[in-house]
Amino acid sequence: MGAVMVTTAVRQTPTVDEPVYVGAAADQLRTHRLRYNPEHPPLGKLVIGVGVALAGPRVDTSFRGDQGQLGRHLLYESGNDPWRLMLWARLPVIVLTLLFGLVVFAFARELAGAAAGLLALALYAFSPDVVAHGSLATLDVPAAGLLLTSVWLVWRGRCRPWRWLPLAGAALGAALATGMTALAAVPPVLLLAGWSAWRGFVARDRRSRVLRAVAVTAVVAVVAVAVVWAVYLAVDPRLRWEPVRPVPEVRGRRGAAAGLLPFPEAYRDGMRTQFALEYRPWETYLFGRVRATPLWYYLPVALLVKTPLGMLALWAAGCVAVLSVRRLRPAAPYLLLPAAVLLAAALPGARNLGTRYAVFLPMFLSVAAGCVVAVRTRWTRAAAGVLAAFVAVSSLRAFPYYLPYSNEAFGGPARTRLVLHDSNVDWGQDLGRLAERLRTRYPGERVWLVYKGSGVPSFYGIEAADPRAVPVRRVRGLLVVSDSAAAKARGRLARLLDGSRPVDDVGHSITVYRR
Asked: Nearest-CA neighbor of 54 among 87, 98, 96?
């Protein structure tokens, strides 16, 4: 898994979100202030910042611009090598992703033995979504992995509450300090912590047992809050909050909820920014149709498309196993409740942009799937092994194009663009591959480019013009379009595509047409 992720990271140009996080990380390291990207807490960017610090880039601390401009300025306008800087920024996330695999293994092994641990680890290691997003300098995998770690420690707290549950609080706080989506997991994790404490304490009377369980649960919550504060203080001990752009005003229940959070003002303002993003108009692309409103069923459908078929079967079997096998039943709430709550919180979201919003599912459900081996039937282990091998083959066949992965039922990575868009397919990751393809196969040809991403085409040697800026009749030669742009094409771009024929495909995310 490490080899695959490093190989993938080396070849990919910056995706849409990465320059924002890398730029904010560099700014935090140099200025020790909270100025950029408040909608995401600082811990994930501090992790990315480890790689940024090792890369030693030139950072212009006097730069004044928004967070997107900051990232481009750091990568392309400050004399830095974006290939080298992005690789270093991605490496700490890759290391964390591998460590979370050990948590998956340990959790499943504790529940159902070594064979269960190996099966769970295999599913995790070959998960296209985990590989794709674990090899990027983004926050989705770190936040999800820290939540899984917290739940695992809560499970261990059934035996020694005072040893494991405070550590679970620290992991929960780290997740909250990485991504605000983790807030949805706080109630189920605290509920499970209380249950673990209740089971772990032996007392003569019921009242004493309840009080101890409540006390430990309170400790978990306090430790989680303290970790969030500690992360913000690590960036700036003076907690100076100097947003580059105004924080949107959010009214109603959401605004009141953000104001009640027991976290620094920068965190609360970040929550308000997240709520404001939900109010923006976001288009949804699903199965070839563009919709102006979000779809509540988008994530489940996208997961069906982008999860290997063998993995889907093992996930379902694992859920049945933990609910039906007597010795596994106590673990069912720990594996299924947090994942269900997180998924339920994600379903009504306005941003139907990718399965990365549900990357916690391959983690939790890999543990559940590993427990299939606890079912004592003649063919269980053989069937699980065959399905795991099917998952491995499907995953390896996609190498190195994991972002646009889809399973065989939907045509594989080459056809994902017909079903989904954005970070499911095309997140700007193949600009470097496009430059190489144009240089080797189409030297000297006129190029027209519609690119969706954060990269700067001219840096990679791509000399192209925007076809939407001139009359349609003047656009002749090669028309290169990011698949996400093509998916939602309208007006002039739609007419251009109608009069063109596809001649090449770059990374299953960019299509080359000839006019």
From this structure: 87
Rg, the chain, Cα only: 24
Read off the tokens for 400: 């190195």
pTM of the model: 0.95
Element (H, E) at 473: none
Residues 441-444: contacts with CB under 8 Å, at least 24 apart: 441/504, 442/478, 442/512
Burial class (CB in 10 A: 0-12, 13-18, 19+), 359: buried
3-class DSSP state of 449: strand
Contact present, 71 and 18 (Cβ < 8 Å): yes
Question: pLDDT (tens digit, 9 = 90+) per residue, 436-453?
Answer: 999 999 999 999 999 999
CB of 4 closer than 8 Å to CB of 131:
yes
Confidence grade of residue 514 (pLDDT, cut at 50, 70, 90): very high
Is the preceding omega at residue 42 within 30 degrees of 0, hence cis? no
Separation CA 143–CA 140 (nearest Å): 5
Question: Would you call 232 exposed, middle or buried from its count of C-beta atoms within 10 A (0-12, 13-18, 19+)?
Answer: buried
The burial class, CB within 10 Å (0-12 / 13-18 / 19+), for 140 is buried
Query: Per residue in 396-421, pLDDT tens?
Result: 999 999 999 999 999 999 999 999 99
Centre a 10 Å sphere on the Cβ of residue 28 and count the other Cβ atoms it contains: 23
Buried b (16+ CB within 10 A) or exposed e, 96-117: bbeebbebbbbbbbebbeebbb
d(CA 266, CA 254): 16
Q: What angle in degrees, to the nearest 10, is found between the helix axes of 18-31 and 43-55?
A: 80
What contacts 406, CB < 8 A, 6 or more positions away?
305, 306, 412, 413, 415, 416, 419, 420
Distance, CA of 424 to CA of 406 (rounded, Å): 9
CA 56 to each of CA 28, 45, 84: distance values in angstroms, whole numbers, following the listed order: 14, 16, 10
